[in-house]
């Protein structure tokens, strides 16, 4: 890409005060259309956010070999689930994309080559929560994928390279669930607020690590025994948290919201930084 082109991209994102960061526990896709305490929590946190120029979302539901960013002008709404009511499949979140942000993201990352994707769109890890933050679908959204071949340390370090975007008016969102075990989920109790002992134990430790800036223990989550083995049986829903923590700087304020466990084995706990 030529220097002239890069300068034009940068001109589209002038410097701003540092944007906050969000990790959103997205839970069931039904949260996209249900009215409950969690979607109310998403809306409430949005009230305190500066209006972003665009959103960069790292969702648990886009895993790839290598790392990619969506580069299309108009991303499609992906219904990447099954067995839910027709009303959920009819939801369309028509936020525009931002090729300019996709290129800017490529430019700020130096440790890896980010590919440009024109086929993906917005999966439910992105649109099911962003629609509650910005129901008007008027903020451009770009997704960045999770390279499933890489280590937790890799993802955390890659996140640090995205920090410059926070001072370009970009709201960076990680969307997943800190505790996420579908094999042990009580499917008939998705609206029930309770957690298994191991889920509550892992959740409390995770929250302590977050609030005490103990990022090393968050990265090394596989070293914390049986409760973490059950809480994070696969990494994709946990890794977006590491992106948000890797983007934190200094003594920024950290707060938790939607801090509940549902159906035994999923925590909706969400994090706001800044």
TrEMBL record:
GO terms for molecular function: ferrous iron binding; oxidoreductase activity, acting on single donors with incorporation of molecular oxygen, incorporation of two atoms of oxygen; zinc ion binding. Keywords: Metal-binding, Oxidoreductase, Zinc. Its cofactor is Zn(2+). The keyword Zinc applies. It comes from the Bacteria. InterPro entries: Extradiol_dOase_DODA, Xdiol_dOase_suB. This is Uncharacterized protein ygiD. It comes from Geofilum rubicundum JCM 15548.
